[in-house]
Amino acid sequence: MQYITFNNNHTMPQMGLGVFRVENNDTAKEAVKHAIIKGYRSIDAALIYENEEMVGRGIQEGIAAAGIQRSDLFITSKLWLTHYGKDQVITGYETSLNNLGLDYLDLYLMHWPGTDNTLMIDTWHGMETLYNEGKVKNIGVSNFEIKHLESLKAHASIKPVINQVEFHPYLTQQSLRDYLTTEGIQMESWSPLMNAEILTDDTIQTIADEIGKTPAQVVIRWNIEHGVVTIPKSVTPHRIEENINVFNFSLTSDQIARIDALNEDKRIGPDPLTFNG
């Protein structure tokens, strides 16, 4: 496993398991447990996914089965818009902690910027309070565009360590990536496999054939090559194992360029400039 370093010098695994759209039942628990046993050290959760309880059980069972400590894992969750506002942040945070059965999170994110700039900034101040009081190890944002980050920059005392956004070969986000690099904010990709849509792309399949890897491994490796943290979701044991097996090969500069050229600025999720829950 490779790690990236945040602007506060803390570190995070460059790959983890996403649990979006996983039922709050044994499927979630077993996926998380299996991932931890197979070497995953990062789990990405969210209050709005409504599965934190079983994800938390999977974390506990995974820790026991893998013979590791809680401190060996990097657990993320996200604040939903219903808990926005400086004074509401602590309630959202403690709700997720209680759901997950944890004493702290390694990373807590504002899930969306929302359409109220004043509320967004006020909420970030609540996130800063969490961090300053030592309740969470790192704070960041999700689905923020440059304009949102510029607003935070003008009013915040703490810079986000990370921005988790939609990123895949059909949405390469070059201007946002360049901005984040300049600002020292790590980029993280959600839905890197586009709900499996990207796996049938001819270019991805051709490159997979060239190097003897699966299309999913090619796309995940492409994320890694770009320095992006990525959290592909799977509940299938062999795919969970396949997805993490991406650190023993590289893509050539030509292969990376061919994948980059697939960009269509195509989103499968909401537009962050208009989405408000």
UniProtKB/TrEMBL annotation:
The record marks K78 as: Lowers pKa of active site Tyr. Coiled coil: none annotated. InterPro entries: AKR (IPR020471), Aldo/ket_reductase_CS (IPR018170), NAD(P)_OxRdtase_dom_sf (IPR036812), NADP_OxRdtase_dom (IPR023210). The active site is at Y49 (proton donor). This is Aldo keto reductase. It holds the Pfam family Aldo_ket_red. Residues 15-264 form the NADP-dependent oxidoreductase domain. Keywords: NADP, Oxidoreductase. SUPFAM superfamilies: NAD(P)-linked oxidoreductase. It comes from Staphylococcus caeli. It is an enzyme of class 1 (oxidoreductase). GO terms for molecular function: oxidoreductase activity, acting on the CH-OH group of donors, NAD or NADP as acceptor. It comes from the Bacteria. The keyword Transmembrane does not apply. Its EC number is 1.-.-.-.
